[in-house]
Amino acid sequence: MSAPTVKKPLLGITMGDAAGVGPEVIVRCWSDPQIHQLCTPLVLGHAEVMRQAIRLVGAQLEVEEIPAVADARDSPSQPDRLRCLTVVSDNLLEVPGGRIDPRTGQAAYDALIHAVDGCLAGTLDGLVTAPISKAALHAAGHKYPGHTELLAERCGVQDFGMMLYLPAAEVPACPAGLGVVHVTLHVALRDVFAHLSEAVVLAKCHLAADVMRDGFGLAAPRVGVCALNPHAGEGGLFGDEEAAVIAPAVLTAQSQGLDVEGPFPTDTLMGRARDGEFDALVAMYHDQGHIALKLLGMHRAVNITLGLPIVRTSVAHGTAFDRAWQGTAEASGLTAAITTAARLAGRRRESTA
Fold first, then answer.
1. CA dihedral 173, 293, 35, 318 (to 10 degrees)
2. What does the domain layout of the chain look like in residue ranges?
3. Cβ(133)–Cβ(100) under 8 Å?
4. Which CATH code is given to the segment(s) 159-307?
5. Is the peptide bond before 102 cis (omega within 30 degrees of 0)?
6. Residues 6 or more apart whose Cβ sits within 8 Å of residue 121
7. Which of 75, 97, 277, 292 could form a disulfide with 272 if both were Cys (CB 3.0 to 4.6 A apart)?
8. What angle do CA 274, 181, 207 make, to 5 degrees?
9. Do 52 and 36 form a contact (C-beta atoms < 8 A)?
10. Superfamily name and number for 1-157+317-353
């Protein structure tokens, strides 16, 4: 008796801000056979925008308009037929490329909400987001710092985080890849200190360990924790946050069974992780984690939102309005985001079967 066929996860790919590079990078990566081997992708956005992007890059693709998410689940996707569910207003077609505009901000919001609700309802198995413009989102009246906070609110969660992740192919010494979770995210640098606490650092240690264990299959993930100050505070000469906040969180995490070490000076910690000493890191603020990881693999970094009841990944770059609709966008980051989401969604489905 033959084994039952396992259906590939159905992933919603939101178009992002239509005036940015999102539509182009979706078109560029669509023909990659690896994507269709791992998942069934479906674009949520506007079919005509996708046709314009196809013409821009000269891709050998046709747009197949899907009337509902359910219509995409039971038939295989094809590298030469881009499936799109139009869920946004036609008025975004009036917006020129490379511009901040409330119409594209509203469309990006509408597509995202449609996709999140589909994931929560179980009609989609995961979500991959092309970049949005925070300025356009705000201009449309949606005052969120970014995707992460909007997603957390829609999913009704308080304990969440952002991981910037490099697949294993980019860091050969790390068999499950390498991720960095951020204690603070979209806040001004001067406000970082006020947002740090032992409880928040501890929570991010758990999120880092959880995703490397449950999402990427490591039995005992090793987590390294970044210091905040130069030289980890140099014994209090450059600040006491290491002794007062970060080290106590590490000790508590260890007492709770996590394999966590730190705080370590960040200028050496990323190199140690790259060489296989750690599976994930916890950074204290946005650029502390982003800059170091992107130097290891700028175009293949993936944004993973942790703590949600759904799978969500994204590219690790923005709308790139300065390059939008010029036919020069780099698409490998979206390919990495889609394949990572497919693997995470597959493991989540196995664990709940």
1. 180
2. 1-157+317-353, 159-307
3. yes
4. 3.40.718.10
5. no
6. none
7. 277
8. 115
9. no
10. Isopropylmalate Dehydrogenase (3.40.718.10)
Contacts of 98 (CB under 8 A, 6+ apart): 19, 20, 321, 322, 324, 325
Task: Order the strands of the 259-264 sheet from edge to edge.
Answer: 62-65, 81-86, 40-45, 10-14, 126-129, 312-315, 302-306, 161-166, 178-182, 280-283, 222-226, 259-264
The token pair that represents 261 in the structure block: 């070490």
**Cα separation of the two ends of the chain:** 21
Q: Is residue 29 classed exposed, middle or buried when 0-12, 13-18 and 19+ CB atoms within 10 A define those classes?
A: buried
Q: What is the pTM of this model?
A: 0.92
102-121 vs 147-155: helix crossing angle, rounded to 10: 40
Per-residue pLDDT of the chain (353 residues; tens, 9 = 90+): 344 455 899 999 999 999 999 999 999 999 999 999 999 999 999 999 999 999 999 999 999 999 998 888 878 889 999 999 999 999 999 999 999 999 999 999 999 999 999 999 999 999 999 999 999 999 999 999 888 889 999 999 988 999 999 999 999 999 999 999 999 988 899 999 999 999 999 999 999 999 999 999 999 999 999 999 988 767 888 889 999 999 999 999 999 999 999 999 988 999 999 999 999 999 999 999 999 999 998 788 999 999 999 999 999 889 999 999 999 998 999 999 999 999 999 988 777 65
Phi-psi region of 160 (alpha: psi -120 to 50; beta: other; left: phi over 0): beta
Residue in the block written with tokens 């991010």: 204
